[in-house]
Write a structure and sequence with these properties.
The chain is α/β, with parallel strands linked by helices. The chain folds into 2 domains: 260 residues, FAD/NAD(P)-binding domain (3-Layer(bba) Sandwich), CATH 3.50.50.60; 142 residues, 3-Layer(aba) Sandwich (Rossmann fold). 27% of the residues lie in helices and 21% in strands. Strands 1, 2, 13, 14, 15, 16 and 19 form a 7-stranded mixed beta sheet that branches. The two termini are 22 Å apart.
């Protein structure tokens, strides 16, 4: 017997979660199936809409000035500018005060751990005091056993970009960390619980020790940036405690994986799924499907060797792109492996990439082509399946890494895919 729902979302990343949440707004029974860990835990936690044009112009001050100029087939062109705005408003409602940036259409300029300045539309509230548009002098703090953030190097790179403030970087010992392989969760846990630590003068608690270490290096700066390890469950408490002890604003500098801000966002969104009544099934893989007359009848899920049918009125494909294996390739073709949706690509595999490692690689834009309803299209432009929609990085027609548009596309297309599925499935 098939397990039945109104809407079945396949994929547990930002696009899939957004689709499930927006579909659930329509009084429908929604299920989300996720096989692998969400890519959110590897992301910076920033929500980029559009930082650069497809031809590399930018950074863009206001992404909405450019959205309507994007080429046909770009995911934003498919859903339209209003959908991008609606998706951001939806995200703001879900995340409440955990994120900032909703007061303006303009991109914020967020310093990153590499010392670059990234244009982004939404950012964790704990990042806000570090915006590069803020002229206050800044001290960056890194830790000896956390090589992901080299504070002096990041400070030098920031100065080279021409930021309107003086910035220095120092590297300190983190209280309570003695192992080089300690994970960022361990750093956060020590601060979350203000653990007792031994610094050679008897045991004391972590936050006052850390504040005292940093205070010795302050030289008139009015804000201090840390790597993103300032607590997890009690992140706001940790940050405010350090601010009170230091007498300056404290912020986190987004970094690459493993990403605590990404994990915080993942937890927040999965809590929202539970509150919305979405059924979440994890650790199982959709391996096949049955269809008739251009309509998916059911998806087949592998549950420890047992093939179980999952039936729904509407399906959303949000399995990721080339990195997440939502798009795959063989020597002669590029394809979407679950429903075998068409992926437009050059016939000669040597035309899939550029000879220059930093060149314009066509494969970066490979993905499923969709119509305005986000239904995947065949090579001749007809719809693959009437009740299937695609969202997120499984889509083609854009280079999310070059454009700095990955999160925005996931939000906008996930939101619209969920709305369309919810409207039909209710």
């Amino acid at each position: 017997m098939a397990i039945t729902d109104d809407v079945l979302v396949i994929g547990g990343g930002l696009a899939g979660i957004t689709a499930a949440l927006s579909a659930a707004e329509y009084d429908t029974q929604v299920r989300l199936i996720s096989y692998k860990q969400s890519t959110l835990r590897h992301a910076s936690g920033l929500i980029d809409v559009l930082g650069y044009t497809p031809d590399g112009q930018g950074p863009l001050a206001n992404p909405f000035d450019t959205l309507e100029e994007l080429p046909v087939g770009h995911p934003y062109e498919r859903v339209g500018t209003d959908a991008v705005r609606d998706a951001l408003l939806f995200f703001d409602a879900v995340t409440d005060d955990a994120y900032a940036g909703g007061h303006t259409d303009a991109n914020a300029l967020v310093p990153t751990s590499s010392g670059a300045v990234k244009p982004t539309a939404r950012y964790p509230a704990g990042v806000e005091s570090g915006l590069a548009s803020d002229p206050r002098d800044t001290l960056l703090v890194g830790f000896e056993r956390l090589p992901e953030f080299n504070a002096p190097l990041a400070a030098a790179h920031l100065e080279a970009t021409g930021v309107p403030f003086d910035v220095r970087g120092v590297t300190l010992d983190f209280p309570g960390i003695r192992r080089d392989d300690a994970k960022v969760i361990r750093y956060a846990h020590i601060l979350d619980h203000d653990e007792r630590v031994d610094i050679g003068r008897g045991e004391t608690v972590a936050r006052p020790v850390l504040a005292a270490l940093v205070s010795d290096h302050l030289d008139g700066e009015s804000r201090v940036g840390f790597p993103p390890v300032l607590g997890d469950d009690n992140h706001d408490v940790v940050r405010r405690d350090l601010e009170e002890r230091l007498g300056v604003d404290v912020f986190e500098v987004p970094s690459g994986p493993p990403s605590l801000p990404g994990l915080r966002l993942e937890d927040l969104l999965y809590d929202a799924l539970e509150e919305a009544g979405v059924r979440v099934t994890t650790g199982v893989e959709v391996v096949d499907y049955d269809s008739s007359n251009g309509h998916i009848d059911h998806a087949v899920v592998d549950r420890t060797g047992q093939r179980v049918p999952y039936q729904a009125d509407e399906y959303v494909l949000a399995t990721g792109g080339l990195v997440g294996k939502g798009i795959d390739s063989e020597r002669e073709r590029v394809f979407e492996p679950l429903f075998d949706c068409h992926v437009e690509h050059a016939g000669d595999r040597y035309e899939w990439f550029d000879g220059d490692a930093f060149g314009d690689h066509p494969f970066a834009r490979y993905g499923v082509s969709v119509d305005a309803e986000l239904r995947p299209q065949k090579a001749d432009g007809t719809v693959e399946f009437e009740n299937l929609r695609a969202a997120g990085s499984v889509l083609g027609g854009y280079d999310f890494a070059a454009e700095k548009s990955g999160s925005g596309v996931s939000l906008a297309t996930g939101f619209i895919a969920g709305v369309r599925a919810g409207e039909v499935g209710q």
